[in-house]
Amino acid sequence: MIEEKLNKEIKKKIKKGLLILLSKLAIPIFFILIILLLVSYITDIFYIGIKNEEKSNIKSEIKYYTTKEYTEEDSQSFFDSVGDFIDGMFNSNKIVEDAEFPVVGKSFKDITSGYGKRTAPTSGASTFHSGIDIGAPEGTKIIAIADGKVTKTAWGGAGGFTITIESGEYSFSYCHSDPNFIVKVGDEVKKGQVIGKVGPKNVYNVPNNPYKDANGRPTNGATTGCHCHFTVKKDGQTINPLIILKGGDKA
């Protein structure tokens, strides 16, 4: 009888100990799961889905991301993305104080292609550049440079995934953005508000996407790499963004 009672007490203490242990591990386990899901998203491995005509081949995906083509910059971008993802869960509508340039942490020296006539860099790209290209790693934040209203968050053909903001007589478009939009059509945004992120070079699940890279992988519009194409229109006509960007006349 005493032995049976002792066994019950031992079992009760073991159960209590396990519950305490699990309660302390719950938060770390939660964040580990988030990071694993993020790894899956960034490496495209889990882009395999029902009704997806362009199902990824897991072996080829793993091979791609273990070759030299997957650079140190890509790795850094991944870890930055993890930080931004966790930060975004708690503060997605953050206002950036220095809001004079559309891409956070970048400046006029990071413009890789200016406004106007040019040689098209890839198939499907225009020979007249309607905006400026700002080189930036995937996941870099983009912001509203003026108060306005979001009028577009969608696929935009050669521009890839695009966010457009109307502000009086002006409209501002941010192309080749991350397809996981932070804002939605109809949102009122403030100058300096984070509205999205620079998107990946390769995107999937876009029906009839004609844009491909040299390896035949579908791209985020007509693009050769991660960047933000920034277009400004005044009364419906494109203008050189440097005209309205503070300090642009000195660029």
Characterization of the model:
The protein is an alpha+beta fold and 251 residues long. It has a domain at 94-250: Glucose Permease (Domain IIA). 27% of the residues lie in helices and 21% in strands. Strands 1, 4, 6, 7, 8, 9, 11 and 12 form an eight-stranded antiparallel beta sheet that branches. Strand 7 (161-167) and strand 8 (170-175) form a beta hairpin. It is elongated, with a radius of gyration of 23 Å. It starts with a helix and ends in a 12-residue tail after the last strand.
Our estimate of the beta-strand percent is 15-25%
- CATH-assigned fold name of the domain at 94-250: Glucose Permease (Domain IIA)
CATH class of the domain at 94-250: Mainly Beta
Q: What series of H and E elements makes up the topology?
A: HHHEEEEEEEEEEEE
Low-confidence stretches: 45-56
Keywords:
Glucose Permease (Domain IIA); alpha+beta; elongated; 27% helix; 12 strands; eight-stranded antiparallel β-sheet; 251 residues
Compose a concise summary of this entry:
With 251 residues, the chain is an alpha+beta fold. It is built from three helices and twelve strands; from the N terminus they run αααββββββββββββ.
Architecture blueprint of SSEs:
Elements: H1 2-42, H2 58-64, H3 72-90, E1 111-113, E2 116-117, E3 128-129, E4 132-135, E5 141-143, E6 148-155, E7 161-167, E8 170-175, E9 188-189, E10 194-197, E11 227-234, E12 237-239
Antiparallel strand pairs: 1-4, 2-3, 4-11, 5-10, 6-7, 6-9, 7-8, 8-11, 11-12
